[in-house]
Amino acid sequence: NLQDKLDRAFKVLKGQGNITEINVAETMKEIRKALLDADVNYKTAKTFTDDVKQKALGQNVLTSISPGQLLTKIMNDELTALMGGTVSDLDISTNPTVILIAGLNGAGKTTFSGKLANYLRDKKGKKPLLVAGDVYRPAAVDQLQVLGEQVNVPVYVNRESNDPVAIAKEGVEEAKRNGNNIVIIDTAGRLAIDEALMNEISAVKDATKPHEILFVVDSMTGQDAVNTAKAFNDRLDFTGVVLTKLDGDTRGGAALSIKSVVNKPIKFIGTGEKMEALDVFHPDRMASRILGMGDVVSLVERAQQQFDEKQAAELQKKIRKNKFDFNDFKTQIQQIKKMGNMKDLMGMIPGIGKAIKDVDIDDNAFKPIEAIIDSMTPFERENPDAIDAKRRLRIAKGSGTNINEVNKLMKQFADMRKVMKQMSNPGIASKMMRNMP
Ligand code: GDP
Ligand code: MG
User: Fold this and answer.
1) What are phi and psi of 279, to 5 degrees?
2) Beta carbons of 110 and 216 less than 8 angstroms apart
3) Which PANTHER family match (predicted)?
4) If you measure from the C-alpha of residue 155 to the centroid of ligand 2, how many angstroms do you get, rounded to a whole number?
5) What phi and psi values does residue 269 have, to the nearest 5 degrees?
C-alpha cells in the first residue's frame, strides 16, 4: 500500500544528514509512483514532486528529525496548499441562499442534499427547504422525501410537472413564502456527461441564480472523477466540490487531482450512507490521509517548533568558550520535555510505535536532575566548577536527593562539557588525532 511505498522511499534517505540531488530524485520517483497508485493524475503528481524536490534540496536537516521526516513535512505542506490550504466555507449569508447540487448518476447528490440540509439545520441553525428537481425517476422524488423526513427538513415536490427549471423556481418561491433561509435543489444526473444534461442544469442555474453550485463526485471513480469535474466546471463554473464515498479505504487521491485541474475548493466529504456521515473538508487532514503518515507530520512540526536556530547558535558560542552551564542544561531538558510525553513522541515514529507499546518509558526521568539544578544558587549554575563538596551536600539536601545522585550529575555534566568542547573545536580534535600513537 501507499504507506509501505513511502516507507521504502524514505529508506533511501535514511542516515543522510542533508537532502541532496541524488537521494531526493530517487525518493521522488518512488513518491510519484505512490501518488499515481492513489489516483492522483500524472501531471499533478509530476508538478507536485518537482515542487517538493525544489523545496527540499539543500535544506539543512535539523538535529532532531531525519531527512525523511523533513521531507514528509514539506510534502504535507505542499499537499495541503495544493488542496486549498484552508477550509472553504459555504457562502450562506443571503436570505434565502440557493444551493444547486449537480453531478452524474449515483455520485451521491440526493444523499448529500439530505446530509447538507441536516448539517445546516443542526450546525448552522438554518431553516432549509429541499427541492426535488430530479423529475425523470419517481423513485428519486420518493428518496428525497424519505431523507427529508429523516432529517426533519421539508421537501418541495411537484409530481405533476416534468420541467426541472419550473420546479426549481417554484421551490425558491415556496421557501420565501415559508421563511426558509436555505434552498437546496437536488437535480437529475446522467450515466455520462451529455449535452442535454448540461443544458438542463445550466437552465436551472440561470433561472435560480444560485449562491453556491456544488459539484458532487464519487471519489471511487478515480481519474474519471477528474474528467467529469472539468466538464461540469467548464459549463457551470461551480463554486465547490463534494467528494463522496470517502469512507472505507478509498485513497483520496482524486481530491488532489480535482483541485489542481479545476481550481475550485473541495467543501465537503461524504463518509458513509447515513445522514450524519458528512465532514467539512480539511486540506491538512486529507494531505495526511494521502501521505498515510498521520502522526509523523505532527511529530516533525513539534520538533521544528521547539528548535530555535538563534538559540542554538548562542549555545554553540557558549560551548566553544567552555561556558556551557547548568542554566543551559536546564533549558535543554525543558526543550526535550516541551516536545511532549516521551512515549508519545517515540510512538509516532513508524515502526517504533508498536514495539514500545508495552515498554515503560519514565516521563519522570528528568525530575531528580531538575530538582538538583533548582537547588543550586544562580552563582553555582553559572559556575559549575565552584560547586565543591560542601555545596554538593547542601544541594543534595535541598533537592531531596542524595550526595551520590548529585555527584553523578556533576560527573555527567563535566563529561558532557568535555565532549561538547571537543566536538565544537576542530583544532583540538585534530591535535588529539595527531597525539595518538
Ligand atoms: P445520486 O444519483 O447522485 O442522487 O446518488 P444517491 O444519493 O442516490 O447515492 C447513490 C448511492 O451511493 C446510494 O446507495 C447512497 O447510499 C450511496 N452513497 C452516497 N454517498 C455516500 C457516501 O459518502 N458513502 C457511501 N458509502 N455511500 C454513499
Ligand atoms: Mg439522486
Assistant:
1) -125, 145
2) no
3) SIGNAL RECOGNITION PARTICLE 54K PROTEIN SRP54 (PTHR11564), SIGNAL RECOGNITION PARTICLE SUBUNIT SRP54 (PTHR11564:SF5)
4) 14
5) -125, 140
**Distance, CA 341 to ligand 2 centroid (Å)?**
49
Q: Which H or E run includes 130?
A: strand 128-133
* Three-state DSSP class for residue 196: helix
Asked whether the CA dihedral 219, 225, 228, 229 is positive or negative, the reply is: positive
105 CA: nearest ligand 1 atom: 2
Q: Cα of 169 to ligand 1 centre, how many Å? A: 26
Q: How far is the CA of 423 from the centre of ligand 2 (A)?
A: 69
Supply 23's cell numbers. 537521494
Give, using CA atoms, the residue closest to atom 12 of ligand 1.
108
Convert the pLDDT of each residue in 409-430 to its tens digit: 998 888 777 776 666 555 444 4
Domains in the chain: ranges and CATH: 2-86+292-302 (1.20.120.140), 97-281 (3.40.50.300), 329-435 (1.10.260.30)
pLDDT digit string, tens, across residues 139-150 = 999 999 999 999
243 pLDDT band (50/70/90 cuts)? Answer: very high
- Look at ligand 1, atom 27, and give the residue with the nearest C-alpha: 273
- Give me the residues near ligand 2 (ion), CB cutoff below 5 Å: 109-110, 140
> What atom in ligand 1 is closest to the CA of residue 111?
7
Pocket test for ligand 1, best of 273, 274, 275, 281 (most atoms within 8 A of CB): 273
Q: Are 165 and 203 in contact (CB under 8 A)?
A: yes
Q: Are 182 and 158 in contact (CB under 8 A)?
A: no
* Mean pLDDT along residues 321-327: 82
Per-residue pLDDT at 98 exceeds 90: yes
Dihedral over Cα of 349, 353, 355, 357: its sign: positive
Other Cβ atoms less than 10 A from the Cβ of 171: the count is: 27
User: For the whole model, what pTM was predicted?
Assistant: 0.66
Read off φ and ψ for residue 240, nearest 5 degrees: -170, 165
Q: Closest-lying ligand to the alpha carbon of 188?
A: 2
**Which of the two residues, 415 and 373, has the higher pLDDT score?**
373
Pocket of ligand 1 (CB under 6 A): 103, 105-111, 189, 244-245, 247, 270-273, 277
Among 95, 84, 71, 69, residue whose Cα is nearest residue 20: 71
Segment 56-81, tens digit of pLDDT? 776 655 544 566 667 777 888 888 88
Report the nearest atom of ligand 1 relative to the CA of 104: 3
Contact present, 287 and 79 (Cβ < 8 Å): yes
Ligand lying nearest the CA atom of residue 216 = 1
